[in-house]
Amino acid sequence: MPAKQAWQLLNVYYIYRFILACSFSLLFYLKFGSLLFSPFDRLLYAYSSVTYLLLTLILGICIFWRVLGYSLLAQLLIFTDIIMLTLLMHASGGIGSGIDILLAVSIAAGGLLIGGRCALVFAALASLAILTAELYAAQNQLLAKTNYTYAGMLGATYFAIALLSLVLARRSEQMLQLADQQEHTIIQLEELNQYIIQHLQSGIIIADEQQVIHVANQAALRLANLSLTPHKLRGLSGHLSQQFQNWLNAPEHSVTMLQLSVETEIQCRFMTLPTHQQVYYMIILEDISLYNQRLQQSKLASLGRLTASIAHEIRNPLGAISHAGQLLSECTQLTSQDLRLTKIITSNSSRVNQIIEDILNLSKRTDSVREKIDLAHWLNDYLDNFYIEHTDAKDTFKLSLNDTPMWGFIDPGHLKQIMDNLCQNALRYGEPERGEIQIQMQHDRHGPCLEVIDNGAGIAPEHLKQLFEPFFTTSPSGTGLGLYISKELAELNQAKLSYYLTDQNRSCFRLCLQDANLTTIEI
Whole-model pTM? Predict the structure, then answer.
């Protein structure tokens, strides 16, 4: 059996032993022994009872301080019990005194405490002790009558008790092992449940009817921009508290939208969790960006299939037009006006072909496979590769890294595409001749952010709303798909791409990523 339970049983038996030893001593010194036991050997009883008590106290010290091992202490307790109880029985008039029954308790305790062959050995010792005491009394004619039959029956009884205690000990050990296994399983399941709840992307809140919060995971606190769990829902959000009360009054409206912070819109669902003692309520808070991510994946898949088929259909006649324009431009009889028209055909064919290439790339977009990325290390490698691909941009960018390591959770391929678009736009429209283009790392309350800051004039206010729309461009040579694709890829990775003007009126594109250290479970 487990060590803790074994020592507990030993302590319980020792308490019984201590009470028994004290009782025998009190019976003698309070003069009750001569009345209870007849005939009565006062001297032997006195020595035996005192010795029994002293041995009990010594063994108690050993048990309390655990001076000896468990098995040895248990064996000493049972062995001294057999010896001292036999002497006390003999001093009290033999097996007729009733003390012999107490040996049965000791033998049963031996089977439960130690088990195995020791229980049978104790039963054999007790039987021999009883028979030896009877033989000694008969030989010395100390008793008027001896009863060997009763002594033999007692011996058989001791063996039966030892066998039964062995069976009970094994069964109790099996039950303890089973209980220990079940307890271990329950603890593991509880830890697993706590881990899953705490690392879900969706916020989970368990509250009662009085709006007292019993459980709130990290996602719920993060959505509410809190570090500690408040006592009641009102401490999380007054609007959430009101919506919860409205749901209690009208349970059919279990889904609502609310604003826990300035930038985050939350979908809130209420559920009832009935238990035997009390009814609890579960509130699921889901960032609308999760819904947008799933919607984005579906939208990109549908858009990809549609645009791929259209692009292929356009590319064939476009190729014919471009080829015809090139052949026409080689004709020597064309006037300068005609040559200008052929150049228009060629340049616009190239532009349409570039649009088709961008659309085909968009149609090949796959689901994000996000990884934990060391952003400082990744940015260094990215710029080295970018300079290899764009030799004219050498030393154009200035990288500002954070002293504290920052880890983003994003698809590396998608991050490269986003940064390629931002850096190429900065080279094309950011007036790099006026100064270096800055790439810097920041950390806001939601997670790590990458910023690309150029020296351009900025986006006109009337164009800001259309900035990330497809095919919107202010450049005659642009396709208007770069920022749109970057925005779509960011949302696909639960990131956020935004634009703003710095205090120095410089254009800044900011990409805010998920913090990879805040591990979440997607459902």
Answer: 0.48
